[in-house]
Design brief:
alpha/beta, 5 strands, disordered C terminus, 5-stranded parallel sheet, Rossmann fold
Length: 346
């Protein structure tokens, strides 16, 4: 009797129908969210694997190169691996500053501690000063934010809380145009230097007149981070090679005193530590303008030349414990004597 009364009551029927409608709406919403998250995770898994392949971090490696765009364009990791006959990773991120590279070193060692023997660090006259690099370079590491070493670094850069939260929930939001392109190149196995142009000296000279042109400076914090990176790597019993990928002579001659001073600092940092070597390829290649895409980056021809030279030196370090010592390569640990023109004051 009671049920028939409720069933015949229009108000009750409407409430029941509304309840069913809300339930169906909630269920559909949850299914939609689940679908979006599932697709999001699949996209992230695909892109992250591509990014690891691009960096060479999808396998165990013996040699790894850490740096920024100068490493990207200056070293051919595929060619280097072929010459050395060992697996090589090129963990290089465009615009990566000193703190970025320290985090990269920590992450690399945590992933490759069982097989890694030697790490190449890209250095230059701008190593101790990040003022010419983007303050937002940490955003390029968001795809790897699930790794403790990378997460700590990103949080140390104090990102916006909303920015962090969104990327925790939506993994595909971790990719921007730059690392999305790298992930796809990794998937397609396209890691070659695409710079086919040659240095335009007139354009370079115009850029050098800009008030925003990067200067050769030594920042105290930059020097400290560099020293910390070397100490971290050597404490893991790794061989470390500081590789000065060439910069064009026109830039080097803007402030030759500062340039020589920084090169001497790099050599002294290597000389103060066991199993650290400094290879300066400026001497031989800085005048060969046809090897440069711009003032600080090699084109495809330059990359091939530098990689072949680096392979020869690394092979000697891996097999004999020290590089060969041609007159045009600065490697004072091997020679035991620093050229007087480059010696630090005092």
């Amino acid at each position: 009797m009671t049920s028939s009364i409720f069933s015949s009551n229009p108000l009750v029927r409407d409430l029941v129908q509304q309840k069913r409608h809300v339930y169906q709406l909630v269920l559909k919403s949850l299914l939609l969210v689940a679908l979006v998250l599932a697709v999001d995770r699949l996209v992230d898994a695909y892109l992250l694997q591509g990014l690891r392949q691009y960096y060479g971090l999808d396998r165990n490696v013996t040699v790894a190169c850490i740096g920024h765009s100068r490493t990207v364009l200056g070293i051919d990791d595929v060619r280097l691996a072929k010459e050395l006959r060992v697996p090589v990773a090129k963990f290089a991120v465009q615009g990566a500053g000193g703190a970025d590279r320290l985090a990269m070193a920590r992450y690399l060692v945590s992933q490759q501690h069982a097989t890694l023997r030697l790490v190449c660090l890209d250095v230059s006259a701008y190593t101790f000063d990040d003022s010419g690099l983007s303050a937002n370079s940490y955003k390029l590491f968001y795809p790897l934010m699930d790794e403790p070493e990378i997460a700590s670094h990103i949080q140390a850069c104090q990102p916006d809380s909303h920015e962090w939260l969104v990327r925790c929930v939506l993994h595909s939001a971790r990719y921007n145009e730059a690392n999305l392109g790298l992930a796809l190149r990794g998937r397609w196995n396209r890691r070659e230097n695409l710079k086919r142009n040659r240095l335009d000296l007139d354009d370079l000279r115009r850029r050098m007149q800009s008030p925003n042109a990067q200067q050769m400076r030594v920042d105290e914090r930059g020097e400290h981070v560099f020293e910390e990176t070397l100490d971290f790597l050597t404490s893991r019993q790794l061989q470390v090679v500081l590789v000065y990928i060439p910069t064009v002579d026109v830039l080097n001659e803007v402030d030759p005193v500062a340039h020589d001073r920084i090169r001497a600092m790099l050599a002294a940092a290597a000389d103060a530590r066991p199993n650290v070597f400094y290879l300066d390829y400026n001497c031989q290649y800085q005048h060969q303008h046809e090897l440069f895409a711009d003032g600080i980056h090699m084109n495809a021809d330059g990359q091939r030349v530098v990689t072949d030279r680096l392979a020869k030196d690394l092979l000697a370090i891996l097999t004999k414990g020290s590089p060969p010592v041609p007159a045009d390569t600065v490697s004072w640990r091997a020679t035991g004597q620093m050229p007087s023109a480059m010696a630090p004051d005092g």
